[in-house]
Amino acid sequence: MIEADRLCRIAHWARSLEPHAFERVQAEMIERRYPAGTTICEFGERFDYWAGVTTGLLTMRALSRTGKEVTLAGIHAGAWFGEGTLLKKIARQYDIVALRPTTLALLDLETFLWLFENSAAFPRYLVVQINERLGQFIAQVEIDRRLDTTSRVARALALLVNPTLYPDAGDYLDITQEELGQLAGVSRPTANQAVKQLQELGVLRAEYGGITIRDLDRLRAFGEDREL
DNA sequence: ACATTAAATTCGA
DNA sequence: TCGAATTTAATGT
């Protein structure tokens, strides 16, 4: 049984649930911690939970045909993921790896499907979420195509402050340059240079162990579609 | 890869 | 429980 105020803190979508749905979620949700480096779920495995990141940072990645690891999305505290595979009842199409010690809130498949059928608010929320994530995947493909490393890092950052997926996020991002490099697909020193450059442009402020976004619009617009 | 700096932890009072 | 000393983590080049 999870406390009501805690549930509201870790699951923004729960706040708009009808009371009967809220209570069921309260009863069924569990939390689990994972050390840094843990593979939480591997490609092809069943992982029958809808999961939210309570603390920490995850990456969703797939192996391309050439064997290169491709980051599909960085996921940090506040985000919920996995609805696609749950609704289709299939195995995961990607690996989920904890980049640092991470706590997940988990909702089992049965409860998830029950919510989908028995709450009016929940499917509405899911549509918005899925739509937003679709946009993210498209943006992520672009990160990998882009040559210019500063734009890659800027894009990777922009994905982490998406206000739809992270409605509670402030302008401070708890992320190291090492982690940012992994999400952007660049080395740590390269990420460092990119962060420095973005700082000089006034887009963000680099801090020890984190980054403060100063100008979200310019971060978003950074290196906006050139050619495809 | 190495030097620097910030933070976290340990330890002695 | 305070703070100085040490170790670990993150950053800058």
Major sheet: 4 strands, antiparallel
Q: Strand-and-helix sequence, N→C?
A: HHEEEEEEHEEHHHEHHEEH
Overall SS class: alpha+beta
Overall 3D geometry? globular
CATH topology (fold) name of the largest domain: Jelly Rolls
Report helical residue fraction. Answer: 40-55%
E-strand count? 11
The rounded distance between the terminal residues' Cα atoms is 49 Å
CATH 4th-level superfamily of the largest domain: Jelly Rolls
Please write the CATH class name of the largest domain. Answer: Mainly Beta
What number of structural domains do the residues give?
A: 2
Radius of gyration: 18 Å
| CATH architecture label name of the largest domain | Sandwich
What's the quaternary structure here? single chain
H/I helix tally: 9
Which segments are poorly predicted (pLDDT under 50) over 5 or more consecutive residues? Answer: none
Question: Helix and strand layout, with pairings?
Answer:
Layout: H1 4-10, H2 19-28, E1 30-34, E2 39-41, E3 49-55, E4 57-63, E5 69-76, E6 80-81, H3 83-88, E7 95-98, E8 102-108, H4 109-118, H5 121-145, H6 149-160, E9 172-173, H7 177-184, H8 188-200, E10 204-207, E11 210-213, H9 216-221
Antiparallel strand pairs: 1-8, 2-7, 3-6, 3-8, 4-5, 4-7, 9-11, 10-11
Helix pairs in contact: 5-6, 6-7, 6-8, 7-8
The protein binds a DNA duplex (13 and 13 nucleotides) through residues 176-178, 188-189, 192-193, 195-196, 206, 208-209.
